Amino acid sequence: MPADPLDSTFLGRFASFLWLRRGNRSADKRGFKAAIAADPDNSFPASNYANFLWQFGEEGTSESLAS
Q1: Which of 6, 19, 5 is nearest to 48 (CA)?
Q2: Each residue of 21-59: pLDDT tens digit?
Q3: Contact present, 41 and 28 (Cβ < 8 Å)
Q4: What does the alpha-carbon distance between residue 31 and residue 20 come to, in Å, rounded to a whole number?
Q5: Which end of the chain is flanked by fewer CB atoms within 10 Å, N or C?
Q6: What is the C-alpha to C-alpha distance for residues 40 and 55, in angstroms, rounded to an integer?
Q7: What is the DSSP string of 35-57?
């Protein structure tokens, strides 16, 4: 059975996978944001995105995850 395209946990894990394999920060940011948008109440993709931002010392790590 194929993965649900709106499954935020799947999208978050896929974004993490791509980040580790590909390292394209702008594309990876979009992947994490898509995962969060799919289910804003799921903390898994939000925490992975926070880790992603922290790893790179990104400015605005306190930015709203909804933006």
Answers
A1: 19
A2: 887 788 888 888 999 999 999 898 899 888 888 887 765
A3: no
A4: 13
A5: N
A6: 22
A7: HHHH-TT-HHHHHHHHHHHHHTT
Q: Report the first-to-last Cα separation within the chain, whole angstroms.
A: 32
Angstrom distance (rounded) from CA 44 to CA 41: 9
Which two three-digit tokens encode residue 55? 């790893």
Tokens of 40: 């804003």
CA angle 13, 43, 12 (to 5 degrees): 15
Q: What ranges do the domains of the chain cover?
A: 8-54
- Give the separation between CA 53 and CA 60, rounded to whole angstroms: 9
pTM: 0.70
Q: Residue type for 27, please?
A: A
